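Reader question, answered in our methods column.
A reader sent in the components of a multi-part assembly and asked whether the whole thing could be modeled at once rather than chain by chain. We filled in our standard form and ran it. Here is what they sent:
COMPLEX SIZE: two components
ENTRIES:
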Amino acid sequence: MTLQLAPPPRHASPRRARPSRRAGRFDLRGMPYLLVSPYFLLFAVFGVFPLLYTLWLSLHDAELAGKREFAGLANYAELIADAEFWNAVFNTVGMFVLATVPQIIMALVLANALNKRLRGRLLLRLGVLLPMVTSVVAVAVVFSQLYSRDYGLFNWILGFAGIEPIAWQNEKWSAWIAIATMVDWRWTGYNAIILLAAMQTIPKDLYEAAAIDGASARRQFWQITLPMLRPTIVFVVFISTIGGLTLFTEPVMFEGEQMMTGGTTGQYQTVAMFIVEAAFRGGFEIGYASAAAWLLFVLILFGTMINYWFTRRIGGAR
Amino acid sequence: MTNHKRFAVTGVLVTALAAMTAACGGGEAPAPSADASTPAEPVTINVHTFGGGENFGYDEAVKKWNAEHPNIQVKYSNLTDRFEDVYLPQLLQRLQAGSGAGDIVGIDEGAMGLMAARPQFFTDLGEYGLQDRKADFPAAKWETGVNAEGKLFALGTDIGGMTMCYRKDLFEKAGLPTDREEVAKLWPTWDAYLEAGKKFSAADTGAKWMDGPNTIYNVILSQEAPKNGNVSYFDKENNLVLETNPAVKTSFDWVQKFSQQGLTAKLQAFTPPWNKAIKGGDFATMGCPSWMLGVISGAAGEENKGNWDVAAVPGGTGNWGGSWLAVPKQTKHPKEAAEVLNYLTGKDGHIAAFKEAGAFPSSIPAQQDPEVAGLKNEYFNDVPTGEIFSASVKDLQPVFLGEKHAQVKTSVEKVLEGMDQGAVGYDEAWTKFVEAGVKAAG
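And here is the structure of the entire assembly that came back:
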């Protein structure tokens, strides 16, 4: 859209200038709205509408290309009594903890190391970010092959220690470990870079003062670095919480055939997989799946709140 | 002026949105005509199918039709190689939306119950004279294409039939006969198959007797269902009979026995490790409907040519798999679509598909054609597939598949895999199996 609303020439008569002045006012007041509107229009179509439609669907007994009857809160009641849903919640939270705790700790250690004077510091910093460049699917496919029972690298290595081949998909603990490593491989470096950026904003004189007072490097880390990083750690934990609770691609690729059941007895079915399975695989029950999606939303809200409360305590919060 | 400007912008957006919607809707006004073969304006009939490799094998058949019918041009697209998790959900969404589905759509056996329970989405093919085709099909294939309202909505394409594939080189290593006639004599019954399996295991070739639980489970279920009123998970009133149907229990028991004897390679069918095992010779036998031959030759590759062979299956005839074609109600050209469907499911269409994709025809005239009956499969040591599969589908019975057959099938087969791999104990497997089925049936 071309803009023809140039300010009026100075010598123009007041009468002719008036419409232009009004246009000028629009330029100032209306234009910003106009310019941000594409985002909001798209958000309305692809964000707000699906959100509300999902809510509406969750109150119906609805099948894909099938019946659609109002059911009130029946879907939610059924979900709360559904052992498979809670199994999916348990898996999701379990894998989240198993992946995120080591991930944040490793990221902190990495960031601290990269903050030191090192040779080839730039290359190392770029290096930890490299896994971010690969696609999630590619990562998951490669890892799934490494974890394969008959021809996988990990079982081959374990074989040297005399350990029988492990069917990684078969047990909860082994499947969770496999998936957690995929998540960590991809995200640890990313979190480390964010933490590193925050570390570099910490004033040097704090460390100098501490050093003069005789504080060891470890003491400096605990007493200065960590407390100063708190807002960033809160941010990193939030992002990890949202990512961890909507975990989807890694377990799906780990399963191989994309039926969303997460193993033969749902050993690693996450809530996101549960939703897709309910809507588009097994029963085509989109009403039920919508209700599960809303419960997942509540779960994330809850998880984020717990984490906020938790991370506020880091480094002796007042 | 401010307002004008605003309106203009809104106008542009509205127009753009309308254009997008129209584009999504697609399609032109119907061309009314008296004679379907020569519609007033040329129409395009979209045929949508699924499947890996050569899938439905309609390239040649469509070329021939298009050359002969300038006014009805067929556009054939194979949408994906995955049915349950890609094609079916997409088709259901398009049926629901009222647009986007093909004028003719392929449907796999597993979803026929689901589609039969949704007559509102499909054209009654009887209105276009296809009721006359009944004599061309085995009763089993025909009945499945009749929906809940008793209307004909789909006609059959290929059919599974049943044989047993085996690794010749592994049989030789284990000291078992390798000739397909002798192999068939080795296992007239499933008991004999089990005994042969024990013998094979004792020879310690490093390979297992069979792939995993579910291929054999489907083979046995397809043989047992006709002995028990032609039903598997659901009776003809769509009640779940999973727990009481002896066909299901018998099949389950056999699989449990094979698994407990350690005869399975604990593999999940149709996954990458399973494909690798077919290639690497990690197991010696596998149940083989006609379409499975293509799966094996594809997975095992050229270097294994001649290693796999085909023998008669223990326990007699059965059918696993096969597809149908239907015309969704949303089509603008039901008459022309029905005409194309009639051609593709007719003798010529079946034979063309068989030559191209190896899909064994369900059409009886096509089965009797010398081109089909005399066919041999080079990859499997020139096994006379035409003869073997014709024999295996001769007395086929129509097995009723309930509306939620696919869902129940997926769920209970997961339990079998869990049992085979050790995640579900043998003593609790049947209870879990029934539970999973009941839950999936809703």
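What stands out: The interface with chain A takes residues 1-2, 5-6, 9, 13, 82, 84-85, 89, 92-93, 95-96, 114, 118, 121, 266, 268, 270-273, 276-277, 282, 404, 407, 410-411, 414-415, 417-418, 421-424, 432, 439-440, 442 of chain B (CB under 8 Å). The radius of gyration of chain B is 24 Å.
Send us your own complexes using the same form.
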